[in-house]
Design a protein that fits this description.
Number of helices: 8
Protein name: ABC-2 type transport system ATP-binding protein
CATH class of the largest domain: Alpha Beta
Keywords: ATP-binding, Nucleotide-binding
CATH superfamily of the largest domain: P-loop containing nucleotide triphosphate hydrolases
Oligomer: single chain
Bound molecules: adenosine-5'-triphosphate
InterPro entries: AAA+_ATPase, ABC_transporter-like_ATP-bd, ABC_transporter-like_CS, P-loop_NTPase
GO molecular function: ATP binding; ATP hydrolysis activity
CATH architecture of the largest domain: 3-Layer(aba) Sandwich
Number of domains: 2
Largest sheet: 6 strands, mixed
Organism: Micromonospora pattaloongensis
């Protein structure tokens, strides 16, 4: 496997509480990897560590062979945060063109990104007047327009209707087919099946790192929601048995 992101023994504490507890995983290049887990399980924290904006307690995070957050990665990594990061007093197009200019890209590149996220019809609308889902797509346009080698997208499909979600997933796969590495978080299990690989995280620990097919097979169910529950139950049972042996 050609690895784009490598995480080793990552421990993160926030306000004195351990929120990532020794995570190790590898994210393959040119594929869509889903980061799935319940609310508060540590998905955003892991993504922040990959982007290099999270203070870490120990461990290493390497992206395209460089330490996370280091200068060579600045132009190579795009990050979509959960909170839209576009200017409310500019139109969708003005935002995209502004971010394109920062990357030395053309207006045509900016307009293409706006079209890619399905916002061509709202290009001249002020971001402050968009719906939540549209605003999130305006942010997404700005994250993808530099054609970064690695895209870290924190819940990019929240608030989108089913048709748009399908369009966005098709776009993600088209980007991966063109060589982009995508790490995408979601807590919606029906999106897990759309990923090439899955990282399942719970309470700051990785509970699965495999393809959706292998996760289904290991858990003995086609339903990924159920598979996730079974994996957790099995781990808890194994942990309890270990505890019994020790005592
Ligand atoms: N700024 C912060 N200060 C202290 N603790 C934080 C901070 N941000 C998050 N946490 C805690 O870290 C843990 C992991 O949070 P994180 O945002 O990474 O989870 P998540 O899986 O992305 O959740 P969600 O799906 O709800 O976005 C949670 O217990 C959360 O309360």
């Amino acid at each position: 496997m050609d690895t784009a992101i490598e995480v080793r023994d990552l421990v993160v504490e926030r306000r004195g509480r351990r929120v990532l507890d020794g995570i190790s995983c590898a994210v393959p290049r040119g594929a869509v990897t889903g980061l799935l887990g319940p609310s508060g399980s540590g998905k955003t924290t892991l993504m922040r560590a990959v982007v290099g904006v999270q203070l870490i307690r120990s461990g290493t995070v390497t992206v395209l062979g460089h330490p996370a957050g280091s200068a060579p990665l600045r132009r190579k990594l795009g990050y979509l945060t959960q909170a839209p990061s576009v200017y409310a007093d500019l139109t969708v197009r003005e935002n995209a063109r502004y971010f394109a200019s920062l990357h030395g890209l053309s207006r045509a590149d900016a307009d293409a990104a706006v079209t890619d996220v399905g916002l061509a019809g709202a290009a001249t609308q002020l971001v402050g007047t968009l719906s939540g889902g549209q605003r999130s797509r305006a942010s997404l346009a700005c994250a993808i327009l530099g054609r970064p080698e690695v895209l870290v997208l924190d819940e990019p499909t929240v608030g989108q209707d089913p048709v748009l979600r399908t369009d966005l997933w098709e776009r993600f796969h088209a980007l991966a087919a063109a060589g982009t590495t995508l790490l995408i978080s979601s807590h919606v299990m029906d999106e897990a099946g759309r990923c090439d690989r899955l990282l399942l995280i719970r309470e700051g620990r990785l509970v699965a790192d495999d393809t959706p097919a292998a996760v289904r097979a290991a858990a003995g169910t086609d339903d990924l929601d159920e598979a996730f529950l079974r994996i957790i139950r099995d781990r808890e049972r194994a942990g309890a048995e270990k505890g019994t042996v020790r005592s």
